[in-house]
Write a structure and sequence with these properties.
250 residues, 2 helices, three-stranded antiparallel beta sheet, mainly beta, globular, eight-stranded mixed beta sheet
Length: 250
């Protein structure tokens, strides 16, 4: 359905300084023309642990990518990206731990999302789909080759599911695999359904999810889950379960 229900009620600007040349002048944009931040920085100190503690899934991470590189931040003045998005922030290790329900249940009503909506198996946080100005962050802000960038506290994050994550965890055909978790405990999966067809927001509910048979907690089951798509809002538009996170965690 292509919507975002954010708990934030006002936006104070920030993010990219101008529209990039990949915008077409009619509100649309061409992803093939979009700039990316230069660089190929590895993070050998990246750490991610996922443990089961009773009915909880405990995810602890430094928020540094465990299996892909990042761009160089702050954005260099010699980088094409600097013309549009002069991100002055540096990537730094975080100390993040969340306890999610291992067997989440649908709430009576959907609820709004905060700035962070989940964490992927790369160890990196997923933010919602808008920037500090309330604009489509994937369209306006410039990310690196793995679709990530840092905010002012050094928290590296994605606004959509990283292509690097999909290439590593969800290559192939048929039903997409689990690539992460929303903060209400439900899984985030790649874009393909059981027949190998790529889903879009039009195929999903108001929270960007669907109920179908996927592998979750080690077994095939018919369960609600979120789907990563190439169109807005990309991952989680609102929560169908009850979030374990009620404020900024980075």
């Amino acid at each position: 359905m292509g919507g975002l229900w954010t708990c934030q009620t006002s936006f104070n600007g920030g993010g990219a300084q101008s529209e990039g040349p990949w915008f077409n002048g009619d509100g649309t944009w061409d992803v093939t023309q979009k700039y990316t931040v230069d660089g190929d920085v590895d993070w050998p100190e990246a750490e991610l642990t996922i443990t089961k503690q009773g009915d909880k899934r405990v995810i602890s991470t430094t928020d540094l990518p465990t299996f892909h590189a990042t761009g160089e931040f702050p954005v260099s003045s010699s980088d094409d990206a600097y013309q549009v998005d002069r991100n002055p922030n540096s990537i730094s290790a975080q100390d993040i731990s969340v306890e999610l329900d291992r067997t989440p249940e649908l709430a009576d009503e959907p609820s709004c999302v905060g700035g962070e909506v989940g964490v992927l198996k790369s160890g990196v946080l997923v933010f919602n789909s808008v920037d500090a100005g309330g604009r489509d962050a994937v369209a306006y802000e410039v990310q690196d080759n793995c679709d990530g960038h840092p905010q002012m506290s050094g928290v590296y994050h994605y606004h959509s599911v990283s292509d690097c994550v999909l290439d590593d965890l969800d290559a192939g055909t048929g039903q997409s695999k689990l690539i992460g978790w929303a903060f209400d405990g439900f899984g985030i999966y790649g874009p393909r359904d059981a027949d190998g067809n790529e889903l879009t927001s039009d195929d999903l509910d108001e929270c960007h999810g669907i109920t179908s048979k996927v592998r979750f907690n080690g077994k095939k089951q018919n369960i609600y889950h979120y789907v990563a798509t190439v169109d807005y809002p990309y991952t989680v538009g609102c929560y169908r379960g009850t979030s374990a996170v009620n404020g900024p965690i980075g």
